[in-house]
Amino acid sequence: xxxxxYYAEPYRRSFDAKILAVDTVAGHTHVTxxxxxFYPTSGGQPFDTGTLGGAAVTDVIDREDGTIAHVVSxxxxxxxVVTGEIDWARRxxxxxxxxxxxxxxxxxxxxYGVRTESFHMGQFHPTTQNTRGGxxxxxxxxxxxxxxxxxxxxxxxxxxNRIVWEDRPVTIxxxxxxxxxxxxxxxxxxxxxxxxxxxxxDYDLSACGGTHVGRTGAIGMVAIGGWEKFRGGxxxxxxxxxxxxxxxxxxxxxxxxxxxxxxxxxxxxAASIERMQEDxxxxxxxxxxxxxxxxxxxAQALAARAERIGDTLLIAEALEGWDPQELKAIAVAATxxxxxxVVALFTSSTPAQVVIARGATASVDAGALLKQLAAxxxxxxxxxxxxxxxxxxxxxxxxxIESVRALVS
Length: 409
Hints:
Elements: E1 3-4, H1 5-8, E2 14-25, E3 28-33, E4 35-36, E5 50-52, E6 55-62, E7 68-72, E8 81-86, H2 88-112, E9 116-120, E10 140-144, H3 150-165, E11 170-175, H4 177-181, E12 195-200, E13 204-207, E14 222-230, E15 233-240, H5 241-262, H6 269-304, E16 307-309, E17 312-319, H7 324-337, E18 341-347, E19 352-358, H8 366-377, E20 380-383, E21 387-393, H9 397-408
Parallel strand pairs: 1-4, 17-18
Antiparallel strand pairs: 2-3, 2-8, 3-7, 5-6, 5-8, 6-7, 9-10, 10-15, 11-12, 12-13, 14-15, 16-17, 18-19, 19-21, 20-21
């Protein structure tokens, strides 16, 4: 079994170890050491990265036989003694998030008797800006056994930060299953054999194999970013330490940008945006009214230019400045005014979009006509016999209009 230095020394940044085995798995080099400070993915916490003998460590795997595989980019030799260097920024971030999770889960448990069912920690990415984490890494989540209210979340967040700011010691203890059974563990452990316990002084005692800070003050703060219903309970998103700072910076930048446009203090932004949305909806309703009147007027003008092609009364034109929805409104208005007419309206740009409609007494199948146009000029679309709509037609307006005339004749 690989000796796990991180169990007792989570602040250890470098170490020397002997290579016991080198294997190739799926094209990747897996190195087994006699001891390691690299944490493997386990218990919701991602693996450590860094270097081993100068080669990059890209993954760390906890094997069922008790050994740990280090996926490296180099080609080391069995028996060689190498120096391992932990990516400390990543390790410390994970320590902050994991210890913060212990404290936050304990807060929900102590205040409301709500247990944490699972925990997921977003990985640390020092150069990646992302939508959820807003900085170096994604936010983390805990899944609670029942739904919790906003007031319960706020109180748990307050209590968790009280423990952080009291800078309580976080110690590592080991106990047998029998000894642990007599202890006030927050959650029973299903593991057999000696248990590693993380003790947040007078607040939380949990069996855990992860890495944690030495005092709660090093967590920095526990900030809840959001929550949602999840599988009958609540999924709570949180950020600790550096991640909380980065999320604040993202929100600060967003609020500052919005404030410049709204010219109101942050506390009034929500109400101001709500008013703007209502004003925008009112304007949209007014615009739609004008568009409907304009479409009816345009339909009347088109009806006056309808031409007889064989047995069909046809309106085929390209209209500039109208989008497909507006073309549809014009076509429907024209067919309502003249039940025997067939209307084919195109946008003036290429590739063109098209709306085809027929009046109640017209015999041309609009959907079939659209398929014929698409077969000749490309594009796609669909519809029924009385109304069809499509786009992507690779032809000029003149070619499209002439093709429609030929198809309906």
